[in-house]
Predict the structure of ABC transporter substrate-binding protein.
Amino acid sequence: MKKFGRISLVLSLTLSMMMLGACSSNNGGGTAEENSGNSGTKSTNSITLGFSQVGAESGWRSANTKSIQDSAKEAGYTLKFSDAQQKQENQIKALRSFIQQKVDVISFSPVVESGWDTVLKEAKDAGIPVILTDRAVDSKDTSLYVTFLGSDFVEEGRKAGQWLTEQYKDAAEDINIVELQGTTGSAPANDRMQGFKEVISSNPNLKIIASQTGDFTRAKGKEVMQAFLKAHKDIDVLYAHNDDMALGAIQAIEAAGLKPGEDIKIISVDAVKDGMQAASEGKINFIVECNPLLGPQLMKVVQDVVDGKSVEARIVTEETTFTSEEAKEALPNRQY
Ligand code: GYE
């Protein structure tokens, strides 16, 4: 995940502000600072936002899409929404189409971290500010986007690792862990892997014996878990990078005559309703929350950007964790 140094943060903000100055239709071409008064403000209902979504791969994604669509409507923005079906080439096409249509702001959740510089430069040259939501890019040039709004996935991985380390702190023998990774090359897969490994490495008994992508979907989670179960007779723990893959894996574990949550301990990330349901039944032992309801925050940032106000270069979502007991308690009030 990209780390912001002080200088790059200031640079990024300054350049972003310059981009905004270039894009605002009635600001006379000055910088955002020069135009920070009402003369640079676009009325809410004339804002057009182009949003390129990753796909519809998980419960998290469906909740995220709904949050973005509902909040754009509430804010009175015109939303041009495009579903990339988990393909980077589709997202690049969507971004180019937004540029051609001269939308006011572009936002997207990049399916993978790498390979965005060219299209982001095109947006910058066209004077259209870009807001990253949910997932990060690895572009060195942070002036290519205004801000990144989303979770700290490394921290999520650490929380998963901390629970596991605590559970097995007295273990005298090896604990065999299998890992279902998210989409290869995506920020949440890279970072959830990194944070988890970083923490469990403190205990040499905690061993990852297999790790493979399940692409964040139930179907792949099930398929890969079946293969894990065939290849390894002694799996103690499953760490799944999201609830959907854990739910698919639970089907595979049950089909193999084992009890999820008992014979194999399960940790996952997201805390969507179906995941919380499985946790409340004791099938998932620990869930790290990842909040998909980014819509209201995103719309506020869009308005600030259009108004030429300064925005934070990184906006982190606040999140918690749930044991089975806590999931049972929280379930009736879950929004997603
Ligand atoms: O955890 C997973 C989804 O990028 C945070 O993508 C998001 C992840 C989420 O498919 O369920």
In short: The pocket of beta-D-fucofuranose is lined by residues 57-58, 60-61, 134-135, 188, 216, 242, 244, 269-270, 290 (CB under 6 Å). The longest strand covers residues 206-213. The two ends are 26 Å apart (CA to CA).
